[in-house]
Design goal:
Elements: E1 2-5, E2 12-15, E3 18-22, E4 34-39, E5 56-64, E6 67-68, E7 71-73, E8 84-86, E9 91-92, E10 100-107, E11 110-111, E12 115-118, E13 121-127, E14 133-135, H1 138-155
Parallel strand pairs: 3-12
Antiparallel strand pairs: 1-2, 4-5, 4-13, 5-10, 6-9, 7-8, 10-11, 10-14, 12-13
């Protein structure tokens, strides 16, 4: 993490630095409910003036873990809880590799998630709990597949 100071010198924002680099030919095996997402390009309106450039992040799932054992508590109220334990039932992940997902907001000049370089492309590391939805639209899926094929042709 690093601090980026504003031009006026009165404020600063915390930035996530790119933590690691993975070669393009290597594979990543995620654990628990962690997932690797390749962000799709954001297209803002050419007609309307965009004042706030923040919007939910859309990306393609490249790798995802098998699932996790959720944490259980002895009371639903946070202030009364005194015990926590791992549930005996396994909760598998609902997302699959190749899904187009919507994540949280893009923050500042970067993403609100840790980043890694996989080959020459920036990827985001997040959890399945950060996913706000899976895009089921045929147009979005076709665009994502066409983008993956284009990248594969360019890399070869």
């Amino acid at each position: 993490m690093s601090l980026k100071h504003a031009k006026d010198g009165r404020s600063a924002s915390i930035q996530q630095d790119i933590r690691g680099r993975v070669e393009a030919h290597e594979t990543i095996r995620c654990l628990r409910d962690v997932m690797i997402v390749e962000p799709l390009p954001v297209e803002h309106s050419a007609i309307l003036a965009v004042i706030e450039w923040k919007r939910p992040l859309r990306g393609i799932v490249k790798a995802i873990g098998p699932g996790h054992y959720p944490t259980r508590y002895n009371h639903p109220d946070k202030h009364v809880r005194s015990k926590s334990w791992r549930s005996p039932t396994f909760q598998p992940t609902e997302c699959k590799v190749g899904d187009v997902v919507e994540l949280g907001m893009v923050g500042g000049d970067g993403y609100a998630f840790p980043q890694i370089l996989w080959g020459n492309t920036v990827h985001i590391v997040c959890r399945e709990a950060d996913v706000s939805g899976v895009c089921e639209s045929d147009a979005v899926t076709q665009f994502a597949q066409a983008l993956q094929e284009f990248v594969a042709v360019e890399a070869a």
